[in-house]
């Protein structure tokens, strides 16, 4: 049984500012000042910060157990392998998967590319008959949404170009909400893959996974879920959602960069052709051919991301101990406060669902007459870190009539004071620039 960490005042109570301030003490980077002001970090949608326990978990691996996994019988190799596979089990439990359904990747982008290239390999002449269900050809369709991050769009565009398939997309309305009537019309007999974000990294929309999965199941399409903006912030059960594949990124959920996860149903992973080949993913090799291991090793060629995986497991433990439901509830509070406060500033347009509609704890906004990059620089001078640009979602910005926005995104270490400081600072932007 995992002990309740010191920062948790009451594991059954809702998070509040008092406990969040205790949580913040676990994050060394948040103790500094920027431009002479206390750092207010509101860019966790891009990269979250690391608690000391995660930093120490990776350091401890290098100090005590550093060795290649699955390749040696000596003490350090055995210890490293055990820690590495324990980390896999920890992350699998966090998302409701089995241990052999979790594949380590460098990030979610690599996971999505792994899928698209595996599907491409299944489309080539001479592919294993077992992999036929993943193959695409002229006339087949891959369906995405208009709100996708480029990482969940470009790999499918590339796959379509190489196979003759077509990419179609489910449109969004003026608030960035999916048009489900159009989704029902678009997802049809030619649909082979449906790939969509659980939550938008721009408008914060939480998509109706159950309804979309039902549409895909009705036509036999595979479902790929981008969980990068959901796994860190709300409960995620891939089995309950019945998605075939899902990806997430460690650096958005308190872990280091360089580690991600591809989840896939076991039967599907073991039927898919591999993407990367080489050492550690084979059973037998001759000078003419090779036979491959089952998943997860089937997709983990070469030296693995050992310390990063262990650190990700530590991050998952931190989230679990704090309470992912409590984190989600707190971020709903912060998200509503963001939207309501920013929407009340003259000349500021908040994109995404209106206040009162559930969203993850972020808000992207446009300041009339001031470019997003100038807004970001102004806020940085106030010690407030936000994201500026198109957030790797140019089609969505184009649909909303914008080229760039400023995005503030919260996490478990943000307080209502952080949000209020941002709102107060944004209220001064147009005056400062004379807009």
TrEMBL record:
Catalysed reactions, semicolon-separated? (sulfur carrier)-H + L-cysteine = (sulfur carrier)-SH + L-alanine
Q: Which UniProt keywords apply?
A: Pyridoxal phosphate, Transferase
Q: Which SUPFAM superfamilies match?
A: PLP-dependent transferases
What EC number(s) is this enzyme filed under?
Answer: 2.8.1.7
| Cofactor(s) the protein requires to work | pyridoxal 5'-phosphate
Q: Which InterPro entries match?
A: Aminotrans_V_dom, Aminotrans_V_PyrdxlP_BS, Cys_dSase_SufS, PyrdxlP-dep_Trfase, PyrdxlP-dep_Trfase_major, PyrdxlP-dep_Trfase_small
**PROSITE patterns assigned:** AA_TRANSFER_CLASS_5
**Matches recorded under PANTHER family:** CYSTEINE DESULFURASE, CYSTEINE DESULFURASE 1, CHLOROPLASTIC
Q: What is this protein called?
A: Cysteine desulfurase
Origin species: Arthrobacter cavernae
- Lineage summary: Bacteria, Bacillati, Actinomycetota, Actinomycetes, Micrococcales
């Amino acid at each position: 049984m995992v002990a309740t960490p010191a920062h948790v005042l009451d594991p059954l109570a809702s998070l509040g500012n008092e406990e969040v301030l205790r949580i913040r003490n676990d994050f060394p980077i948040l103790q500094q000042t920027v431009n002479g002001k206390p750092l207010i970090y509101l860019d966790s949608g891009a990269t979250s910060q690391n608690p000391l326990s995660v930093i120490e978990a990776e350091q401890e691996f290098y100090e005590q157990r550093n060795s290649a996994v699955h390749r040696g019988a000596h003490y350090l190799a055995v210890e490293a392998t055990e820690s590495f596979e324990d980390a896999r089990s920890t992350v699998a439990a966090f998302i409701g998967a089995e241990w052999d359904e979790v594949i380590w990747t460098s990030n979610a982008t690599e996971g999505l590319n792994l899928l698209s290239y595996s599907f491409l390999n299944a489309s080539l002449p001479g592919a294993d008959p077992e992999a036929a269900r993943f193959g695409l050809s002229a006339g087949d369709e891959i369906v995405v949404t208009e709100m996708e991050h480029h990482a969940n769009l470009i790999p499918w565009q590339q796959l379509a170009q190489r196979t003759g398939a077509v990419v179609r997309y489910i449109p969004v309305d003026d608030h960035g909400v999916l048009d489900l009537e159009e989704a029902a019309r678009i997802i049809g007999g030619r649909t082979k893959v449906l790939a969509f974000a659980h939550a938008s990294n721009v408008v914060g929309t939480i998509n109706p996974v159950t309804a979309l999965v039902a549409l895909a199941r009705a036509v036999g399409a595979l479902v790929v879920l981008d969980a990068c903006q959901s796994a860190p912030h709300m409960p995620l059960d891939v089995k309950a959602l019945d998605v075939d594949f899902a990806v997430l990124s460690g650096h958005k959920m308190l872990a280091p960069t360089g580690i991600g996860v591809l989840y896939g149903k076991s039967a599907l992973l073991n039927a898919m052709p591999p993407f990367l080949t080489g050492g550690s993913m084979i059973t037998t090799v001759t000078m003419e051919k090779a036979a491959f291991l089952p998943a997860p090793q089937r997709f983990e060629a070469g030296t693995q991301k050992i310390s990063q995986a262990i650190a990700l497991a530590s991050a998952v433990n931190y989230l679990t101990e704090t309470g992912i439901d409590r984190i989600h509830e707190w971020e709903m509070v912060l998200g509503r406060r963001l939207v309501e406060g920013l929407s009340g500033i003259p000349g500021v347009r908040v994109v995404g669902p209106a206040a009162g509609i559930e969203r993850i704890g972020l808000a992207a906004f446009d300041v009339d007459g001031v470019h997003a990059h100038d807004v970001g620089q102004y806020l940085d001078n106030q010690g407030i870190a936000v994201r500026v640009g198109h957030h790797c979602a140019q089609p969505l910005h184009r649909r909303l009539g914008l080229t760039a926005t400023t995005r503030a995104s919260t996490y478990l270490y943000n307080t209502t004071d952080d949000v209020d400081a941002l709102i107060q600072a944004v209220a001064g932007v147009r005056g400062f620039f004379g807009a």
